[in-house]
Amino acid sequence: MSAKGDMYYAWTKSCDIKGECGGAVISLLKYALENKIVDVVLTVKKGVDVYDPQPVFITNPADLDSCAGSLHCGTLLLPKLIKKYLNGAKDIKVAVTCKGCDAKALLELGKRQQINLDNVISIGLNCGGSVSPMPARRMIREKYGVNPDDVVKEEIDKGKFIIFTKDGQEKGISIDELEEEGYGRRKNCQRCETKVPRQCDLACGNWGVIGEKAGKATFVEICSEKGAMLFDAAQKAGAIDSCAPEAKGLEIRGKIENVMIKMGKKAQEKQFAELGTGTERLNKIMQQSSKCIKCYGCIENCPICYCVECSTKKPHLVRPGIIPPDFMFQMIRFAHIADSCINCGQCSELCPMDIPNSLYMHAQQVELEKMFGHKPGYDMTMPVLSYAEETEERARLNATGSDMIFENVFKE
């Protein structure tokens, strides 16, 4: 029997599944769906091209075959779709594939009681970062000298972003080189330290698969009892097969992860330093935020935002009909989000005015983490502000008009 911390090379036993790394992930999802362990699978498939990732809810196991492969030009965040379209998995069992940011979003929504994690099986996918679709097309045209429409596949391997074209060409350029010239991964991906999503039930990828299994198997790390049960059941049923990983493969996997974590920390230092400190930082944020058109895209897509009664829509806090909105609009978001920001980048990715919201949030989250020790998205520990009773506090604010929670303490 498998247990948390166990690691395997795994591959599909089905000749119909053509996965890039042995097809183990698709086989696990298909097994869970076929055997009614879950009612639906939430994952991603390619749309019209490699720049068009589409989230899909799948109930027919046969449809999972179209979801094999990776899409690094996709910037979707899946867990909030469980809350929005599946009633937070309160009465339905869901399997979902998760990058690092998805895994953290899932936990943050779970601890806020927006998703019932008891009804969710999460399959983590190792992630070195993603590239926004339009910048990816520009990068391929300008740096690779290739028509973006001719690209049929892409991958990140050995520190390079590699493209494959219709006529069989293969071309790779160092990610470091790309990012030094302003191309490459999203800024939040550059800052990310969550490369192997161990918050999930299983963590899967190709890092560390060497020897005769290279390209033919998935590296699977068991991260929970739920993950162990699914893995063992699928193997017993003949859906997958597995073997122990090679010792050298374990070493390589660890080195890759550590290098990428160091890269993330280095990117944080660089990007946060460019913001400045104190008044300088505040002025930069206010200047950039003055482009805001109050479309609410950042709020609607943030996995931390869940309030039914949003303070940014209170006329006594943010004057209605004013564009750009009062800076209080941004201040409210900072107060509500910054202690729990998971650096998913959705608030920047979906901002029509290209305001780097996630940079501001992440910079504040890191400072708050130093102060309070809370690291969001890694376990079910609640953030500091969660200990305030929101319903009672809103009622008190409405009744008194005062934000001085402890005002009576100082009265003699």
TrEMBL record:
Q: What cofactor does this chain's UniProt record say it requires? A: FAD
From what superkingdom does this record's organism come? Archaea
Q: Where is the 4Fe-4S ferredoxin-type domain?
A: 283-313, 332-362
Which organism encodes this protein?
A: Methanocorpusculum vombati
UniProt KW keywords: Iron, Iron-sulfur, Metal-binding, Oxidoreductase
Q: What is this protein called?
A: Coenzyme F420 hydrogenase/dehydrogenase, beta subunit C-terminal domain
UniProt keyword Metal-binding present = yes
Q: What InterPro entries does the record point to?
A: 4Fe4S_Fe-S-bd, 4Fe4S_Fe_S_CS, Co_F420_Hydgase/DH_bsu_N, FRHB/FDHB/HCAR-like, FrhB_FdhB_C
Enumerate the Pfam families for this protein. Answer: Fer4_17, FrhB_FdhB_C, FrhB_FdhB_N
